[in-house]
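Request: How about a record?
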Amino acid sequence: MTTPTDRKIAVIGSGASAAGVANGLEASGVDAEITIFSSDRYFSSLPRSRYEPAGIEQFYDAVYADIRRTAVNYPPRKTFFADPVPCHLVDGEARFFRTEMFGGQTNIWGGTVLPLAREDFAGWPISREELEPHYRAIADSIGIAGQPDRVSEFLGLDYSNAPAVKQLEGFRCLQDHLAAHPETDDYRIYAGVAPSAVETRSGAATSCVECGECMVGCARDSIYSARNALKRSIDRGEIRFVPSDVRSIRMDRGNPEVCSVDGHAERFDRVFLASGCVATTEILMRSLNLSAGPVLQDNSIAQFPILNLSRHSDRRRGDYFGLTNLLLLMAPTSSRASLLQVQLYPNVDYLWRTLAPAWSWKLVRHPVRWLRDRLIWARAYLDAAASHQYFVTLENDRIAFAEKNSPDKAAISRCVSSLRQALRGSAFFLLPFAPVVAHTSAHLAGTFPYGAGSTPVARDGEVMPGVHIADSSCFPTSPVISPTLTIMANARRTALEALRK
């Protein structure tokens, strides 16, 4: 059980940044009562508990049956075992996810974990070198499946500590071609297996079985979730859990008081805001009496297909990883371009099985299986300047968004043209379709950035006395590289530095 103490620390949220804070608090050896405030949705049991088939295939047959009844959408979005993930609306359209589950977006994320490039730390109060020990500690905590390759060569860092995820043969062929032909007019392309927070060690209880059903929800918990890490600490009595969302924070006799939506109010010595960029922004705007001001940044995504006509034959095409099989970092070589990240996905069964009648699956399963690495889906992440940005307001005490900036079509065109140029002479072809721009990448950041702006945010994230931002809200910009590893590492650093005061 938790040792009685006079010091009290609150962590608001239960996703990646909350897990990073918890890691930092544990490393600090602090003698304090630690409390997590979060929704308890799926805390005790997951929606997968309603499926009790004999094996993996039957399990997912039942999940897809539920998806077709209740959760069909186009273009298909991930579900959490057939439970739709709610989204915030902008002008009536669903945009970015609302985090309403214990574990936050780590329940539905893609698992890609990369350190930021050194240049991404412009505007930060710290350097990448200062964050590196925290990167390493988080990598050791969550496990990273990967290997040294051209991507880690470009970044100058490699935190992989488990075998890389299975890569279908078509992706290996594409990687080999890009390694031999990396130069285009605007970019140099670095290709490698995406480092992923996935259990790949043989013999592990949650080791990935390569069923490819990642878009539905992982039945084996192979993909890292903050839910599991935090729940273990709660079950051991190391962390106290208050199953309530937080509305605001107010100062009471020099200490922050956390006020929940259900009326619960409690004073703490330190409070770490770790509920994700949107929820943290809403809490802070109420707490600071702001009706407007923050600007939300989100990396836009351009999606397009690549056709693979190579003659390879992958005998293991029946076993595959259903998320990123190949990752490209496109480093600019001209002044008109900026760093891009491109994630390449297989043509997953999910696309057919959520949209087509159930009876058709037996007829097409073998052709769809063949297409897994023949029709490759590219998702190009644009930098924040070329992406969606939103003015944030509180309207009737609820957060609202108005579009400030839309995706840069010229940046999308340069990306597609450069990839087409790099693929010349290969068996891979970009189909002549205009890229589809996704509404969000869920890489949200920048509403309360570090610095001495209208709302000063200190190096340790302090934004109110004793209140520290520990998620991507304090990032100066939304990085094009997948941010989760940096969110967790920076949350760990924030917790350690705040406790030294």
